[in-house]
Design goal:
By secondary structure, the chain is α/β, with parallel strands linked by helices. It contains 16 helices and nine strands.
């Protein structure tokens, strides 16, 4: 096993504790931002807990009250140690800087220990994919829990700057609604089979890519070539089953196909048909953003992702959803995640609701936006009227829109006037 000496920073740990001994503001800040495991040295962990307990009890913090508490608890610390800590503080007003450094070093120690543990598991011949899943889960938990507490003033300082950027970077719903999908938002599209989940996601991808937004498409159901055919069919208006014959025999449609192909080639859409593990999905999301500047990621669909974790299906889907949401937020992209709905014959005839999202109630809770698709009416020409229901929208309006779904071209269009008036 690889052994790495634990990373620590004695001076920073002294500065944090010394600041807490002389500055009440530092105590308040540290109690809300620091945990005892952030300290490498065991006596410092104990001292931090003493100061924290005193503060929680409403007792003023100074060298006398802290030492008396140390004596009561039997810790091996003497007044001279406390004086040394106070003398080691350059300036207690810099407590935010000291805490930031303390957390950075603590996080590095955690990463090293976690990786060492997982290396040992691989050495013990455990399934490497399962080890990757466990490693990703632990590191994701670390990242999610490492956010610093910020004042409202510091938050408001960035709100107005972000507002103008979000207007530029926001994503279209792909249909005619005034709201936009903001960077960092996690969107669920839920529908029963063959209702148009992938068709809507493909249409959203095409519309946004046409506006210059780089798109990532992670397909767990269809291969890259099938996704490519979806785009060709949707844009050209030529049914997918007819394209092969047209290419073989030649026709007036050939020119149209050539124009469509030239246009699609230029679009910033990147497609992958990966291994269906959550570890793989999360790494691909990061790679897409790092290598291609992706702003919107489609995942088709969540129930096909292998969680690489123990537990029942609800628990597994909850963890998958949390990892996708956290990755979405950290990367500041818009994620469009497709989901099946429960197939209960008793309820299939009614319009779907949020609780119909299959296998996990956490999908509804995690999502910023939930779009539910349902067939409202089958038409004689085999097309369908489909209800596009924005059933949840954390930062916008909820609304229903009836759309025409053209089955031959697998495309959603605005409902024509003659169908609206019926």
């Amino acid at each position: 096993m690889i052994n790495i000496d634990p990373i620590n920073d004695l001076e920073t740990e002294q500065a944090v504790l010394g600041s807490m001994l002389i500055d009440e503001r530092a105590v308040t800040y540290c109690v809300g931002s620091v945990v005892d495991s952030d300290f490498y040295y065991a006596p410092f962990r104990s001292l931090f807990n003493v100061i924290k307990d005193l503060s929680t009890a409403g007792i003023a913090i100074d060298i006398v009250t802290v030492y008396n508490k140390i004596v009561d608890t039997g810790l091996d610390l003497v007044p001279a140690n406390l004086t040394t800590l106070i003398e080691a503080v350059p300036a207690s007003s810099n407590i935010e800087t000291y805490v930031k450094r303390l957390k950075e070093v603590s996080k590095k120690r955690f990463i090293i220990k976690t990786c060492q543990d997982k290396i040992a598991k691989i050495g013990n011949k455990e399934d490497p994919d399962e080890v990757i899943g466990l490693l990703l889960e632990e590191l994701t938990t670390l990242s999610a829990s490492s956010n610093e507490i910020k004042s409202l003033g510091s938050i408001l300082g960035t709100v107005y700057d972000n507002a103008s950027k979000e207007k530029v970077d926001s994503i279209s719903f792909g249909i005619d609604v005034k709201d936009r999908i903001l960077p960092g938002e996690y969107v669920i599209i839920g529908a029963r089979p063959s209702t148009g989940k992938t068709a809507l996601a493909t249409q959203m991808a095409f519309k946004n890519a046409s506006a210059g937004v780089p798109i990532g498409f992670i397909s767990l159901e269809m291969t890259e070539s099938h996704i490519g055919m979806r785009f060709i069919t949707s844009v050209s208006g030529i049914p997918s089953r007819a394209i092969g014959a047209l290419l073989e025999n030649g026709s007036d449609f050939m020119a149209r196909l050539a124009m469509v192909n030239d246009g699609l080639i230029k679009l910033p859409i990147h497609v992958i048909y990966p291994a269906p593990s959550i570890a793989s999905i999360a790494m691909i999301m990061r790679s897409m953003v790092a290598n291609y500047g992706i702003k919107m990621i489609v995942i088709d669909y969540i129930q096909l992702i292998d969680p690489e974790l123990d537990g029942n299906r609800n628990t597994q889907l909850t963890k998958i959803s949390q990892i996708i949401k956290h990755t979405t937020t950290k990367l500041n992209v818009s994620s469009i995640v497709l989901s099946q709905l429960s197939r209960n014959n008793k309820y299939e005839s009614r319009k779907p609701e949020l609780h119909d999202l299959r296998d996990s109630g956490s999908l509804e809770a995690d999502a910023d936006i939930v779009i539910l698709l349902s067939t409202k009416e089958a038409l004689p020409d085999k097309n369908r009227i489909v209800t596009h229901d924005i059933a949840k929208n954390r930062n916008g309006e909820m609304r229903e829109t009836d759309l025409l779904f053209e089955t031959k071209t697998i495309t959603f269009r605005e409902l024509p006037p003659e169908l609206k008036e019926r």
